[in-house]
């Protein structure tokens, strides 16, 4: 790189900064763990490369030149900036936890609860990766994940799991408009169209519950978050996964459209990578997720 050819020896620059700060060749040598003669050689080499003296040698004392003072100020700031950057990187590597989950789980379950973890652990930086495609744990990017499915998993160790229950839900306004009674062809059904059929479709729900109705969804979305947003807006009935929509049932923006329900076959699993190094931040996050999942 071009700038490296223009710079003197880094060892000489570090030596100069120490001499200026300690105001002594002897004290600088002690700090750097070298002899006074080695410090003198580094300063002499630097003076030769710069083409001018950096110190006025007096009896039992040294006095830096104006050029030396200017260079020293730049060195002190530069080394302080480098030290700060290194400290920040080290801090992040120790106190950052990355949590992975689907978009729906992150939006509906994780984010409403995350403030609790952050209040209890103010020194930990939290990064959330939300994606509906499978999150690979062997790449080292994720410290702990919530994965829906049935264990075991080849790339992770399950430390907690929890099932879910699915039931038809709608907004209070839609329920008032439709009135009481079983679901029927007059209802507006909202479907989540995804390739991953761990999200139950209405046809699956009808088949598994034995419901005697024909469901023809009039509104379809590619993401479950949009399905639930439409249901909360009074646009029809959606399949509500209790773990995910619990906050909406509690605040009354969603209600059950009827009493029928279906236990999901798979489970939400708190999972950590098999090959990941343990860290305090990861252990705290995993313990909190476990407690929250079962809370």
Task: Report on this structure.
This protein has helices at residues 2-6, 10-22, 25-32, 36-50, 66-95, 103-120, 172-178, 202-209, 224-232, 242-251, 280-294, and strands spanning 55-58, 61-64, 96-101, 125-130, 144-149, 156-162, 165-170, 190-192, 219-221, 238-241, 255-256, 262-263, 267-273. Strand 8, helix 8 (202-209) and strand 9 (219-221) form a beta-alpha-beta unit. It is built from 11 helices and 13 strands. The chain is α/β, with parallel strands linked by helices. The two termini are 57 Å apart. It folds into 3 domains: 2-93, Winged helix-like DNA-binding domain superfamily/Winged helix DNA-binding domain (Arc Repressor Mutant, subunit A, Orthogonal Bundle), CATH 1.10.10; 94-163 and 267-294, 3-Layer(aba) Sandwich (D-Maltodextrin-Binding Protein, domain 2); 165-263, Periplasmic binding protein-like II (D-Maltodextrin-Binding Protein, domain 2), CATH 3.40.190. The protein has a 5-stranded mixed beta sheet. It is rod-shaped.
Topology as a string of helices (H) and strands (E) = HHHHEEHEHEEEEHEHEHEHEEEH
Distance between the termini: 57 Å
CATH class of the largest domain: Alpha Beta
Please count the beta strands (DSSP E, at least 2 residues each): 13
CATH topology of the largest domain: D-Maltodextrin-Binding Protein, domain 2
| Domain tally | 3
Question: Beta fraction of the residues?
Answer: 15-25%
How much helix, percentage-wise, in residues? Answer: 40-55%
Helical run tally = 11
**How does CATH name the architecture of the largest domain?**
3-Layer(aba) Sandwich
Biggest sheet strand order reads: 4-3-5-13-6
Largest sheet: 5 strands, mixed
Shape, per Cα inertia axes: rod-shaped
Q: Structural class of the helices, strands and pairings?
A: alpha/beta
Mean pLDDT: 90
- The gyration radius over C-alpha positions equals 32 Å
CATH superfamily of the largest domain: Periplasmic binding protein-like II
List the uncertain runs.
none
